[in-house]
Each structure stands twice: as C-alpha cells, then as structure tokens.
C-alpha cells in the first residue's frame, strides 16, 4: 500500500473516532462553565466551596478512570484479535468492577465528607457549604463509576458517539436542575411579563445535587448501551457475573498503574489546593475559575487520546506493529497542533473567560493572570495526555505512572512550595510550578513513545 495513502487512511480513521470525543469534551466543559458561573453568582464563598472539593473529586474520578482503562484496553485487544467471546467476558467483568468500586467509593466519601474540606484548608465561612457539596455530589458514586468504565469500554470498541450523547445530555440536565436547586424562588421579567421561578435555595449543595442526578442518568444509560453494543458483544444481566481471575488480574496490571498515576497527580493537586487555600478565599476562587477555563486547551487532547487508545489497542491485539506506531504518532501530531491554537486563544481571551464565572474584580484579575501563565505549557500537556494514552493501549502502563509521580511531586509540589512560601509570589507560584511539571511530563512521554520501547511490553518487538 502507498505510504502516503496509508497515512491518510489512518488519519481519517483517527479523526472519525476523535471528533465525537472532542465535541463531547467541549460541550461538557461549556456546560461546566455555565455550572461554575451559576455557583459564582453566590460569591467567592460559593465558588471556594466547589474549589476545595475539586481535587478530592478528581482523585475519585482518577481511580475510576484506572478501572476503565483496565477493562477497556482488554476489550480493544480482544476485538483486534477477533475474539468476541473474550470481549463479552471482559464487558461482564467491567459491570461487576464498576459497581464494586462505586459502592466502596460511596462509603469512603460519605465517611470523610464531614472532615475532608477542613483538612484542605476551607475557611469557616466556606466549610458548611463545602461539606454539603461533597456529601451530595458523591451520593452518585456507583453510577459515576459505571459512566467512567463504560465510556472507556465503548470508546475502545470504536463507539465514541454514545459517550458524546449521554455525557453531554447529563450535563445539560445538570444545568437545568441548577436553576431550580441553587437559587431561591425569585421573579424575573421575560417579554414584558413577570414570571415566578421556583427554587430550593440550596446554594452550592444544590449544584451538587443537580450533578449527582445527572451522573445517575449518564451512568445507567452508558451501562445499558455498553451491554447491548451489537449482537456480537451483547451481554445480559442473567448471564454469569462470577469474578474471572485472569481478567481481573490483567485489569489490575493495566489499571493499577494508571490509577496510581491519577491518584499521585490528584493527591498532588490536593496538596496544591491546601497551598492555595492558605492564600485566602479570593485566591481559592480564582484558582477554581482558572482551572475550569483551562479545560479549553486540553479538551481536544483527551478526545484524541481516547481514539488513540482504541486504535493502538486494537492494532496490538491484531499484532500490527506498524499500525500501532503510526496511530500513536499521528495522534500526538494532531493533538499538539490543535493545542497550539487553543492555547493561543486562551492567552488572548483570558480576561473575558475569567469574567464569565465571577463578578469580583480581584478574583477575575487573578484568574486571568493564571490562564496566561498556563497557556505556555498546554501543547506539552496535550502530548502527555495523548502519549500516556497510547502507551496504555500498547500495555506500557508503568512509564506514565512514573512520569506522573516524578513530575507532580518532584517538580510541581516542591517548586510551588518554594515559589509561594520562599519567594512569596502568591498564586502565580502555584501555576508557574504547574507549567514546569506539564512541560517536563509532555517531553518525557513523547520520548518514551518515539523510542519504541513499548513494543516489548505488548509483544510487537
């Protein structure tokens, strides 16, 4: 086959799987923007109540992502090898794993909800809202786990549209419910008429309840679609769901390094949240807004990464080294190019984006500065996201874990402490440390992929 034609064909295949995932990430984040803005109307305390819980929630989501990787990569390998029976067995085990992990997470978060925000430095005026937010948000953990696991499985089966539809729909439900749960009953004027809008007036807790309901919807929907994905892969609840030792052990080998990586990174983010919280409520609110707006840059990278994992995983299962290498490299190039454009937009539009989420001038000014600081590292962050994913698809799961551990704790945490408490440059020190972490992470993951040592891990050497 002509090399240029083969490359074009692969790029079309990669883009065919990537664009629904990219649109999903963009739409979900746009809805998240609206969600953050709704809470921001409550003032800095409301935004801070959400912000102080962001890292613990990311930690749980990271662990569930690891579970999803452990089973979805096995599904992609089985499909590539043409082993439909194995694929169905893995899907059944994924159902079991999602519910077990979700229930364990639910119990842990409910036990810690009363003390965790305080440990992270929430100020007295923020603490009641922060506790209520965490308790309400994590009530949906079993269904959240189903959403994470089966979004990953469906993407590795080549179905990136179902996660797009249901995750976007869930976020729209979240925004609609916010109107009725965050604010009290109030009057508004529309086309000359006065309308009374009912409201529960729950504040930040209302936002959490809305999110929890939305997560229940998406989790159930994705679970059902994942179990009914065509006749070849259809499974039923009446079938045997007895734990399968070989599948679970392989899921552990694939998922634990990813979960440890995410846990390592998110524990570092928790440490950074505590540092930010020590700088006051304004800094905490600005940090939350900047973190939310920053998603504009790395959204396409996650979408491309999902496609990369699926295509590399299927190529590995089929024993096609050239295809695996080509798909991974194309994914990196595509993600880097798109990220350069989105990072430029982030830098130019930073004050506008920050102003969408809060009316406090101090919060907006600090958030805009953080966005301009982080814009410089976003293309490298995209590379780390994509090549971490393709390495996992090629069963090389330990290197992303080691890179995440070293860069988060050896670079970001230490450098942030020096810049904030040693040089006293405030919130900017946290974000400059983030730049150093993400740039190094992107370079190391790119180097690992380009050297090709991952071929030994998946038996393609």
TrEMBL record:
Its main location: membrane. It holds the Pfam family MatE. It comes from the Bacteria. It is found in: Cell membrane. It is a multi-pass membrane protein. InterPro entries: MATE_fam, MATE_MdtK, MdtK-like. The keyword Membrane applies. Keywords: Antiport, Cell membrane, Ion transport, Membrane, Transmembrane, Transmembrane helix, Transport. The chain crosses the membrane at residues 95-120, 132-152, 164-183, 203-225, 334-357, 363-387, 399-422. Multidrug efflux pump. Belongs to the multi antimicrobial extrusion (MATE) (TC 2.A.66.1) family. This is Probable multidrug resistance protein NorM.
